[in-house]
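Table 4 source record.
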Amino acid sequence: MPLDKLVLICVCVLAAFGVTLWLAALVLTALQVPAGWLALIPAALAAYIFYRVLAERLGNADEDHYDRMKH
């Protein structure tokens, strides 16, 4: 496995771990504060926007110009 792919996998795993901890802290804080569930609205909106951008990027064949390159 090339080093750049290994580093990319490590960065993705660390980012996922950080996001998981952040979401857990946000939910646990929301449970402790009476109106804390309102803090989850921006987090849910950000997650939805991230999902839509990722789905659009992965589903668009025009942006895969590197797939047509010969190495």
